[in-house]
Structures are given as C-alpha cells and as structure tokens.
Design a protein that fits this description.
- This protein has 191 residues and is mainly alpha-helical.
- It is built from 9 helices and no strands.
- The chain has helices at 7-18, 22-39, 42-59, 64-78, 86-95, 99-122, 125-133, 137-145, 151-190.
Length: 191
C-alpha cells in the first residue's frame, strides 16, 4: 500500500526539503523514531518505517546495517520511556515501586542513552566495526556477481565461516584444557 501511494518518496522529499544537510536529516529521523518508539511496538514500527526511511538514509550514504542498528536503537529507547514504555512498566511492577520514583532516577540514564544514540548515528564505525573486522573480499566478489543474493544470504556467508572457526578453536582449546586436567589428576592419583 505504501509503495502504491508513494509514501516513501513523499517522506524523503519532505525530509530533503527541510534541509540538505545529512546531519540535520539524520537528527530528524532519530527524533521521529524516538517519538514513534514511545507509542508503538517495535515490530510494527520496523515494518512501517523501514521502507519510508531506508531510501532516505541510503541516499545520504548510510549502509543498511548502520541504518538497521540506528533504527532498532531508537525503537528500543521507546520501550523504556512513557507513555507506553512496556519494559519500564514491567520493571516497575516487578520491583514493586512507583513509576514516578523510577522515572526521576532514570533521567540521567536517558541523557546518556541519547548521547550514545547520537554517537552511533554519526560515527558509523561504532556499529560497523564487527562486519569490517571480517575479511570478506572473496565473499564480496561472489555476492556482487550473484544478483539473487539477499543481504541475509551475504551476512550468513560472511559470518558463518568465522563463527564456525571460532567455535572449533574454542572447543579444541577447551578440550585440550580438560585433557590436561584429567592427565594431571591421574598423575596425582598414581602418586
């Protein structure tokens, strides 16, 4: 329905008419997502606002991974802020305290969270260091040549070999540590 009514194009045009500055537009998107996050659950908000804001952010040079992290971070902040703040209200109920007392103490944390959100938004390497850490030159060539690959396919091709290798090394190290302990225990028992 949104594609049929050209909502993403209208929103991107409206955002770009406010300012052509990348930082201002990203700040506006953050504010909109923070407000949306306080009233909507994360899943419907992602489904509704991803097709609206993703074209704008990619036009500004933001990667899809960076956009996804920024968007989820914004919406997660909404789960701990009133008026809906489901996580906040569950915590208050479990802790058997008043919302007013908790909210006053959380204001300092909200300021810190907002600063971190701005850092994640404006410094892409904070959220992209792990994908960049992996050497993916061979896989990138395959991904670029294979037009049927999705981003999820690409991520699984990138992450899976590294995760499996890490787990294999961890198991070998843990196994050799256990074997050494067993050998030490047997030598100790024989004495």
């Amino acid at each position: 329905v949104m594609a049929f009514t050209n909502i993403p194009e209208l929103v991107s045009t409206a955002l770009l008419s406010v300012s052509s500055n990348k930082f201002v537009i990203l700040f506006l998107i953050n504010i909109i997502l923070l407000i949306v996050g306080t009233f909507m659950d994360m899943t419907p908000a992602c489904l509704i606002f991803t097709p609206i804001f993703l074209p704008v952010c990619t036009a500004l040079g933001m990667t899809t991974i960076h956009f996804g992290i920024m968007m989820i971070f914004n919406l997660c902040i909404g789960t701990i802020t009133p008026p809906v703040g489901t996580t906040l209200f569950v915590g208050v109920k479990v802790g058997k305290v008043q919302i007013e007392t908790v909210f006053r103490q959380l204001l300092v944390y909200f300021a810190a969270i907002f600063i971190v959100l701005m850092l994640v938004t404006y410094i892409p390497n904070l959220s992209l260091w792990l994908p960049k850490l992996m050497d993916t030159s061979r896989i990138k060539k395959h991904y670029i040549n294979n037009k049927n690959c999705t981003d999820l396919d690409y991520f699984s091709m990138v992450a899976a070999p590294h995760i499996i290798d890490f787990l294999r090394k961890l198991a070998q190290r843990t196994g050799s540590d256990k074997a050494a302990k067993i050998k030490h225990a047997r030598n100790h028992d024989e004495k």
